[in-house]
Design goal:
single chain, alpha/beta, Rossmann fold, 7-stranded parallel sheet, 50% helix, binds nicotinamide-adenine-dinucleotide
């Protein structure tokens, strides 16, 4: 379905971003991977995806907190792969702390990576999408784009912000073949969440298994994690023609978190 299209997925060396990259690659899109990690492992990932799906896969190490590196990554993808048709703004970090003791430096980093990076990437990619009158911009927000939790002030602010950005871009592109939507996952078991489970186990004197069940039980009625594969499948759907008139939407994949 996506053969001949090129997709950039930011933060795709791990977790949800990797799930999205795999799903888009399986649907035939050429890929630009981005994110941090061990160089050998990233190269294995890159060549593995290329071989498995018979697509071209590049890797760009842009730090998503650096606007000039984001612009350079988009320009390089346009030059090397011909276009950026699909942009998935997924890179994100977390830090938890009561607001009184929340380090200002963590606030700045979360706002830069979880929110401002999407602004810069969209600004850089949109002219190319307008030229071909086709594009898909998908912002990976969170249930925390719509509701809050304690000790996550920066994350909640950034995720609420990205839903606002999603709507604004959807309106500015409404009369074109470019759509902009957001996906709002609940708990997905990735390294970002495993850190929170580990911290919880230590704080409450629980096993990892107990801490995992407690974390899910508090917020996610299904009692199950959503998976990176499921988030990837939603992104493939958003790239399909069936989703051509979905604009500015925030799609929950949250085991019922937001239904409460
Ligand atoms: P993860 O830690 O597994 O992956 C994050 C990815 O972002 C990695 O590839 C990492 O290298 C990359 N990254 C981090 N900082 C970067 C930077 N400065 N520049 C470039 N890349 C950078 O986390 P995840 O759980 O897969 O999270 C992915 C996205 O999904 C985030 O935006 C997160 O907020 C969102 N999300 C996650 C969950 C969840 O339960 N895991 C729920 C809702 C939303």
């Amino acid at each position: 379905m996506l053969k001949g299209k090129t997709a950039i997925v930011t933060g795709s060396t791990s977790g949800i971003g990797l799930g999205i990259a795999r799903a888009l690659g399986e649907a035939g899109a050429n890929l630009v991977l981005n994110g941090f990690g061990d160089a050998d492992q990233i190269e294995k990932l890159r060549s593995g995806l290329a071989a498995e799906f018979g697509i071209r896969v590049d890797y760009n190490a842009a730090d998503m907190s650096r606007p000039e590196q984001i612009h350079a990554m988009i320009a390089s993808a346009q030059e090397q792969l011909g276009a950026v048709d699909i942009l998935v703004n997924n890179a994100g970090i977390q830090h938890t702390s009561p607001i009184e003791t929340f380090p200002a430096e963590r606030w700045d980093a979360i706002l830069a990576i979880n929110l401002s990076s999407a602004f810069h990437a969209i600004q850089a990619a949109l002219p190319g999408m307008r030229a071909s009158n086709w594009g898909r911009i998908i912002n990976i927000a969170s249930v925390h784009g719509l509701v809050a939790s304690v000790d996550k002030s920066a994350y909640v602010a950034a995720k609420h912000g990205i839903l606002g950005l999603t709507k604004a871009v959807a309106l500015e592109t409404a009369k074109t073949g470019i759509t902009c939507n957001a996906v709002c996952p609940g708990w997905v078991l990735t390294p970002l969440v495993q850190k929170q489970i580990d911290a919880r186990a230590e704080r409450d004197g629980q096993t990892i298994e107990q801490a995992r069940s407690a974390l899910l039980g508090e917020k996610q009625p299904s009692g199950d994690f959503a998976t990176p594969e499921e988030i990837g499948a939603v992104c493939v759907f958003l790239c399909s023609s069936a989703a051509a008139q979905m604009r500015g939407a925030a799609l929950p994949v949250d085991g019922g978190w937001l239904a409460q």
